[in-house]
Amino acid sequence: MPQGYPPQLATAQAQGPMAPQMSDLSQQFSQMGVGANPAEYQTAVLGGKPQLSALDEAPPAIKLPPNSTCVPSQFVICPPSHKRSTLNAIPRTDKLLKKTKLPFGLVITPFKSQEQGEDPLPVVAEIVRCRRCRAYINPFVQFVEGGRRWKCILCSLSNDVPLVFDYDSATQTQKDRWQRADLNYSVVEFIAPLEYMVRPPMPPVYVFIIDVSYASVQLGAPGVIGQTILSALDRIPNADLRTKVAFVAVDSSLHYFQIRPNSTEPQQMVVGDLDDVFLPSPTDLLLNLHECRQGIECLLSRLESMFKSNHSVGNALCPAIQSAQKLLGALGGKIIVMLASPPTIGEGKVEPRTEGKDLGTPRESDLLRPQNTWYKTVAAECSRTQIAFDTVFIGQQPMDIPTVSGLARYTGGSVFYYPSFMATRKPEVDRFAQEFANHLSARVALESVLRVRASKGLRMASYYGNFFLRSLDLLALPNGLPNHSYAVDIEIEENLTAPVVYFQTALLHTTAYGERRIRVATLALPTTDNIHTVFHHADQVAIASLLSRKAVDRALVAKLEDAREALQHKALEIIGAFKTECTQSSSGATTQLQIPRALQLLPFLTLASLKHTSLRSGNNVPSAMRMSAINSILTLPAEQGVQPYTVARLYSLHDLPPQAGYPDEQTGITVLPPRLGLSAESLLPYGAYLLHDGSDTFLWFGRDVSPALCQSLLNMQDVRMIPSGVITFPDLSGGSSGDGPVAGFELNFQVNNILRRLNDLCHNLWKPVTYVCKEDGEPVLRMWMAQRLAEDMDTSAPSYQQFLSQIRDKVNRGNF
584 CB contacts (<8 Å, ≥6 apart)? Predict the structure, then answer.
């Protein structure tokens, strides 16, 4: 006999729906938009300063009807860091959705890393799935027929409950069904049995293709790359001692390295005939990281001296990629391309582009298109054999990032760009070394595929991110990365009659420890017929994330100007639709535009996106820099992609609250100071300020800043002693936030802790470089920082107030 139900659910589940009480009915009606509570419908008037603190608030609450879950657990609502919807109340009809003009989609981070203080995801040994649509059991299923069957949330099929469901095979005892993790948590990991494996789990494999041409040597790149990989060897996932690595150095020839187990001497083999690529030693080039450790360390420590006199200007990247394909053909793995010069040899060689005269013109969009299809074709082939690419571009040579980065885009990889890199520039070297080492240490999801399922009547229309689309709902990710995100547009094909709709994502993958697992995240959202409810439960951060991805994706296939206009027009449509459908001034002109409080920052987020490097107009954004920014927009989670990457954080340091930079007494989390508006009006002549956009940090000093502040912050006597430009921000308290501040350097202690907290919020994706910018300092630095002040007018876009005025005029004229 199946186990009984929890007392509070037994009647509802075993004998049918529980008779609703009047309070339940009122709550359900309010959640479904029937007799909705006007107090929930707070609006804001567009005007004045944007309240950026709203970006730190949680998304609108998901309000499900009573008895929506089979177990009353606090963990059934899917965390937005795993999956968030642009709408937390779903229109029941496509007609209603189109009336709102709101975008409907999801932003998914399927392999989100575990953050400090978070519990690990629960792991479930037995997989229970719907036999028709293959959805996984979850907290929202209904048990029927006395608990012997469960009803699928997506297709409504009743499935048998397997006998092992209430049995613990490890202890060989009966277990409490209602304590099962898959019925209590919206995000779980299932241990996949043999039938989920095409082959035994493969080990992690890394092939490093390192540019050692003259251009790379002049930058000092080979030595820094070698030392960075050397310092990161212990961080590369290798728990079962099966991890393999290979190294291919590239100039006009290919340099392979063979190392025998327990040997300390690497043997170099050079292949100069590149017409028919072959491996000089097909079986000995993949090195077991554990068995060949001494030889690998020797090779990496000698990389600089090996090529310090190299004057070869050619770059045989394409033959190197072909050889790496041969090397990984049977195993799969990751190819990390480290480039300091353009590929000049092989089928995929690129020609120099003269972009100066095209920047800021309609022809600029052509610079973002690949020169050839070779890299996309290779990426598609590699995706099928479970090979992924990361591309690392170093220096300012024209390496044609739009073309070569296709390797990463279509295999789920990452793109790194370090235009200011030189071995003599310590802050830039530190940035590269920390970011690349962190990347190597990531616990990747090997041989992974991502599938998105949804309730009947919903269709996944378009996907955005770095992946290869294997079928209409299956994304191939040979090496799934933590904190890489993907967005999907959703269409309503049929009317939604149920009070709740569901979205389930499943990431089938192999862990770095050789386990085959399935990470499943289930999101439940209420449906409504009330347009007010839809507007007031919209998630402005998710909307901004989805719209910016759509805009940059459009920039890659159409025109940059088309992308900008589409982004701006969508914001105009949404504001106009709210005025028409939900305000008393539905027709005619109005001096004040209202917007739901949940969307109060949508105009500002739109303007910030238009001013961001990925979409900024003008002739001062090189295509390489723009393409790098586009890749970040396509892959960053919604939280980091919107802020600080698009909307920077600005804090004043001269009047820092005493609690800022110290742990909160209750949470232990470092307290951040109040945010300031992103405008030059916030910068006072006697002030000092910190601006942080994730990848860069600016310290701005007014001309009249006090000597005492300079002393406490940087150990400088006055502002004139502080050098402009790149600095290494000092830690004057000995490097440990737990030891407390050193007398006289309290401000330095606080700011260091604030910087650590800001990096934690970005999951340490970046190692920011710190720039000192003075009120009367170098114009280039001031202009560069001013580009982050999105409220102000610049050459690329109007000020925020001007932007609002333009929107109001167009809405009043009905031009939307």
Answer: none
